[in-house]
Write a structure and sequence with these properties.
Length: about 450
């Protein structure tokens, strides 16, 4: 088993894991039946192969979800602190979005033409994020992919710089890590035939000398980054890091793309607005439409003009940017309702207060049991990590991951009606979460800890 076991009674933990798996199997016969049925025609037995990566012996089937709660096929009710790993960050089926979808359902889904919602959505995005020009995609993966294409065309440079351990969806360019200090294409990337390291540069987050050394080469079109790394476990920028990094990026003629898909938890305008950053481009995916597949990306005035010029100078034909369903009427209606009525300042204040309660409670449990763990909070997003202090780069974050321990904790919580995000220990709160929900999570988490020390 990788990672730390400091302070744990591992035989007790293993016995607990076995008991929790048996309990899950016994209490979920309908999900088991549906999993068996799905295996007949679904590759890997699930709609997407990563749905098998939860802590459960077989996939849990969801029947319905609303607000901070969902019900499974066996009738069990859950408080959801995963919220679709940010896709449902503002709760499942927010009423204004549900109503907008219902209205649009009778008015058409897609037409390859603008709808009446297009201009209001772009206006609101410009107001929130401080970037005047916007385009749309169906996912953050697509949005990041399109932005890289636009910026390579606009700058005439071929390379992109990412941070070790990053994740920006299924964009091939980002699947490069540092292995013993050497840029290396990830072995997990299936079917990749082109050498990614020819056009992708990777450095450690928070390492200004490494960033400057890479930028000095003069061939990097853009730096693609989350302002806080999230997918490998949260890695916060050190004080002054982004201020200095932005100066370096500008000095060497590169551009900064901020991926706010997860850090939109920081506030109505995301982390960049909350912390005074000035990116050249910005991407938001999963939560922007209240759970409907869509994403947005915006440019500064200067970059927008360069992008338009690049398109004007190119020969006629497909640009490689956009899909037929991008900016469809259905998604635009959902985005407008979510931006105007759900992603409000009031909603964020409610979420911030509950996330603070959750973070403080987790720290108290960890301290009471003298565990060498830490807790990090970014707005409505909270995470506990198996190290006494938060990691400051991807290598350190990777080293403290402990998938076996995560699975025990996650399944223990799930069997008691509490869902947190798989792959790491992230918890989200939404407008529908309340103080009692947080207290229940903390109490159950403490019970779990008590069973493994």
């Amino acid at each position: 088993m990788a990672g730390t076991r400091d302070g744990l009674n591992w035989p007790r933990a293993q016995a607990l894991a076995a008991a929790e798996r048996a309990s899950y199997i016994a209490r979920n016969p309908e999900s088991a039946r549906l999993a068996g049925q799905a295996a007949q025609h679904l590759l890997f037995g699930v709609p997407m192969h990563w749905m098998n990566d939860w802590s459960t012996p077989f996939a849990l089937t969801v029947r319905e979800a609303s607000g901070a709660r969902f019900r499974d096929a066996d009738g069990h009710k859950y408080i959801d602190f995963c919220l679709g790993d940010t896709g449902a960050m503002f709760g499942h089926a927010p009423p204004p979005v549900a109503q907008a979808i219902a209205r649009q359902a009778a008015r058409g889904y897609t037409a390859m033409l603008p709808s009446e919602d297009a201009a209001p959505v772009a206006t609101e995005l410009a107001r929130r994020f401080g970037l005047p020009y916007w385009q749309f995609a169906l996912s953050a993966s697509d949005a990041n992919r399109f932005v890289l294409r636009w910026l390579r065309a606009a700058t005439g440079r071929s390379k992109v710089l990412v941070f070790n351990g990053c994740y920006h969806g299924t964009v091939d360019d980002v699947f490069v890590d540092l292995v013993d200090g050497v840029p290396t294409q990830r072995d997990s990337l299936l079917g990749q035939v082109h050498k990614l390291t020819d056009h992708t540069v990777v450095v450690e987050f928070n390492d200004l000398p490494a960033l400057e050394a890479a930028l000095k080469q003069g061939d990097i079109a853009c730096v693609l980054a989350e302002p806080v790394m999230t997918n490998i476990g949260m890695v916060l920028p050190q004080p002054g890091y982004w201020e200095a990094a932005q100066q370096l990026i500008k000095r060497h003629g590169s551009l900064l793309v901020i991926d706010e898909t997860h850090t939109i938890s920081s506030g109505p305008g995301g982390y960049a607005q909350a912390h005074g950053m000035q990116p050249d481009a910005l991407v938001v995916g999963k939560p922007i439409g209240g759970g409907i597949p869509c994403a947005v990306y915006g440019f500064t005035e200067e970059l927008a003009r360069r992008v338009e010029q690049a398109k004007h100078d190119a020969p006629p034909g497909h640009s490689g940017v956009g899909t037929t369903l991008s900016a469809n009427m259905f998604a635009m209606a959902a985005m407008r309702a979510n931006l105007e009525q759900v992603m409000t300042e009031q909603a964020y204040q409610h979420m911030f207060a509950l996330a603070a309660q959750l973070a403080e409670g987790l720290r108290a449990v960890i301290e009471r049991h003298q565990l060498p763990w830490c807790v990090t909070q970014i707005g409505a997003r909270t995470e506990f990590q198996f190290a006494p202090t938060a990691p400051h780069n991807g290598t350190l974050a990777q080293a403290i991951l402990d998938s076996d321990l995560e699975r025990i904790i996650h399944l223990y919580l799930l069997n008691r009606g509490l869902l947190i995000t798989p792959f790491h220990n992230m918890l989200l709160v939404c407008p529908g979460t309340n103080e009692t929900d947080v207290e229940r999570l903390l109490s159950t988490f403490e019970d779990c800890v008590g069973n493994i020390i």
